[in-house]
Amino acid sequence: MWVLFAFGSAFFAGITAILAKIGIKKTDSNLATAIRTIVILIFSWFIVLIVGSQNTIYQISGQSLLFLILSGLATGASWLCYFKALQLGDVNKVTPIDKSSTVLTMILAFILLGEKITWIKFIGMCAIGIGTYMMITKKEVKNKEIVDSRWLFYAALSAVFASLTSILGKVGISGVESNLGTAIRTIVVLIMAWAVVFVSKKQNEIKNIDKRSCLFICLSGITTGSSWLCYYRALQKGLASIVVPIDKLSIVISIVFSYFILKEKLTKRSFWGLIIIVIGTLVLLIK
Known about the structure:
Blueprint: H1 2-23, H2 29-51, H3 62-88, H4 91-99, H5 101-113, H6 119-135, H7 150-172, H8 178-199, H9 211-237, H10 240-248, H11 250-260, H12 268-283
């Protein structure tokens, strides 16, 4: 049964990008991020209540709380950049760059945490890097159409902040129940997201969001929460060495759905890039 939860985690994580892409088509990406974070916050605390870790919140040290807050700020920055990138670019190009945060995380872990990088891991990291580069192909421009390339900048920032999230979270989660740590971080993300909305004076636009966009924005939050629920349930009952690689395959789900639902074309170069990324991800799990 836990294997089904692992695939459920990958599935929900994979379609999150698709639902968000549809939802932010006519909506400011920062406002959309703030709205969906409300849904995610509800899910994260729901998980805490399920596992019964809410009573341990008073046992969190000041240092752990500080790093959890910093991790939350990095998460918020990553989400804001990721959904801005999705609004400007294609899912099948933004997602691989965001997933490359795995490589950045390993490099930072080596530099800051002293974690070792074996030759196997190095090969896996190189494969992910090469695959990501292959998937960043320029669109064919017809009739001198102006293409907004800012998505690449925001996608890269998303990956950087996502990797910082992992490093800061690694330190902050020490001695803290993981689900509770995630819930606390989500509170920080919510505050940050709405702060950005109010600073940019986008809060009044909430009344202009059409029902369809609002629905897909909320659904993207629900799928993120569902992914978390399935992921932690799978980890609780199954083997991490199997759950983690299955969850990482969410990139395949995202790109398949972007092809069939969003009609985003996948070139041969991008296809082989995806294959190399998947192989590189699986190689990283070899001990």
